[in-house]
Amino acid sequence: xxxxxxxxxxxxxxxxxxxxxxxxxxxxxxxxxxxxxxxxxxxxxxxxxxxxxxxxxxxxxxxxxxxxxxxxxxxxxxxxxxxxxxxxxxxxxxxxxxxxxxxxxxxxxxxxxxxxxxxxxxxxxxxxxxxxxxxxxxxxxxxxxxxxxxxxxxxxxxxxxxxxxxxxxxxxxxxxxxxxxxxxxxxxxxxxxxxxxxxxxxxxxxxxxxxxxxxxxxxxxxxxxxxxxxxxxxxxxxx
Length: 239
What we know:
Number of strands: 13
CATH class: Alpha Beta
Number of helices: 7
CATH topology: Metallo-beta-lactamase, Chain A
């Protein structure tokens, strides 16, 4: 049976005490016959140690995806390239020319994502979205229960991203995972309640969501709240 698992490799908090934490996010996705690393945190040494601790080999990756170009999501690139210099890299079409040059200067070819594109059956990237902050792409997994949406920081707004993904895939969102960028927001409870009203069944907030917002997610989602940290494994077949 094919693996269907999300493993949080890097986060502000450690779920497993053997893991290192740091400001940033990285998630190892095993789904639909593919192994994909979504973001790389801020530090290549920490990322490399965490991957090794989890028994995850960068040489086995089918793709490396950057949600957006901020340093706390791209800083661990070297840990992947050192072991897998031919790994296909996916970035948003509207990422800056400076970031694209930085990637090219390391001898990396990249694929640009604009509209939603499939990596495999039921595993997709995009679409690229934008509001006030940087352009960003989510990863979308199609489960029988609904969609899983993974975000780096949700700079375009997590509620808007959920609604866009629902419209494109014509399915409900079952689970959201990642940073939702609420740490400096006001009216957080109303924002979480709005997410609840979109029909999202389960929530796994982390990174830039912020401690206060994460507490509110736990309060409002109860048993459907998933606490995240480096080392967390989510078996998608058991949700």
